[in-house]
Write a structure and sequence with these properties.
- This protein has helices spanning 7-13, 29-42, 58-74, 88-98, 114-137, 148-175, 180-187, 195-213, 218-231, 233-242, 256-266, 290-297, 314-330, 372-389, 402-414, 427-444, 449-459, 474-483, 486-490; strands at 18-22, 50-55, 83-87, 110-111, 215-216, 243-248, 270-274, 302-303, 308-309, 346-347.
- The strands form 3 sheets. The chain has a 6-stranded parallel β-sheet with strand order 3-2-6-7-1-8, sandwiched between helices. A two-stranded parallel sheet has the order 4-5.
- The two termini are 36 Å apart.
- The chain is α/β, with parallel strands linked by helices.
Amino acid sequence: MSLRKGQKELVEQYRGGFCAVPAIPGGGKTHCLAVWTAEMISNGYHKPGKILIVTYMNSAVNNFKKRIAEELKNRGLDSKNDYFVTTIHGLCLQIVREKPDIASISDEFNVIDDIERNDLINRSVLEWRKKNQERFEFFIESSQLSSSKKAESLDNRWQNDFSTVILSAIGDFKCRGISPAEAIEKTHRLNSNSIIKCAAEIYALYDQKLKIAGYLDFNDMLYNAKKMLATDSLLLESYRKKFSFVCEDEAQDSNMIQSEILNLIANRNLLRVGDSNQAICGSFSSSDFTLFKDFCNTPQTRVFNITQSSRSSVQIINLANYFVDYVRNNHPVTRCRESLLMQHIEPVSPYDDRPNPVIDEKGLGSAIFRSWEEEAANIADFSRRMLQKHPDLSTAILIPTAWKMKLVAEILESKGIPFEQLDNSSAERNKALRKLGSIIGFAVKPDSSDRFALMLKECFFDSSYEIQENLTHKKNILEFIKKCPVEQLMYPS
């Protein structure tokens, strides 16, 4: 695939220093970075160290590895040791494991998973509530407590929501390098009912429980990695020697402490790629898109703009550009006019290797429903019609909340409509966990007919298959289990 405007200049000209690449949606930034990496390696410009590429999802890591390997192969090179692709948390975990004593943590620490983390924050909130029930209830509208049953339901909902808010606030503290003691000190002048003051107090309880259990959460890894790099000059120097160039993907989703870590390691050879107009993570994480905007506007930063995209039709591009113009010039809330950059998407040349799609039918539709249940059923029916009409294409369904997504998933499943749920509770993930759970359950108690039957049903037979107690295949399957790995049990061919 040939290089487009902005991509070509980056690949041919960037050889060091601070560099920003504002890239519009569908601009081919992954392809561009892969070509730049291969170009640097093939000419030895990255010596004496490696090129470090940091992104935020494991799927992106694998995509980058594949693309770079393909570009190097096209040049007749096999240079796996000349670049390293990782997530920001993977990088920080590697740093922390180098010298955990510097961060005052055990050599045998573990990274906490979501389930354990949510349990710890809930226990911390409950412990805090024992002495602060009035402050907890301050946020609940008293008129809603009309009955004991309603009050109990509201209390449970607020407990969950309150824990989520507190966990987010704790993440913000950690990403700003603020310890529990510093958080309490910084918030001591606030009103006792301040949610930030409550979060600081619960932060101390949560941090204590983490340490007792020997856990680090994701933000702890960032916090400790930054602390170690800032205080151990030998450790910092080793990473600067290891990586001659640092590239950050999706830089609009970075936060303060991530930026500081990469700045320290990069030692002024820092390439950041992102799109401030796609900064959607700030509402549920500690990311700050202004960091990338400020980096782009810094005098010593060289900027290569990638503005051409072949992902969408010209009609969609025009609509996206109209939206940017509207927000910048006519949004009724004046303060919102600075939320987007004046960055237009351009279609590619009609002679491009991958031209913009041309469609013979298009349209935007809207509908009003009496309830979410009715809307969810309509979404499912629409998805089925689209699948029948376009069996080779996929339909994307964007849903604002988890409980609404769960309802749509249940309706799709009940109607036999195939789908992939892209979140932590996806159907495929849950199915795999059920399989693994049934295997472990049977392994723990292999003389249980019920557990054996459940394992067979989950891993070997269709879910509608009724397994009889007298299982003639038992001997053969047990022999199979002895010889095959767990992955084969979960995904038998």
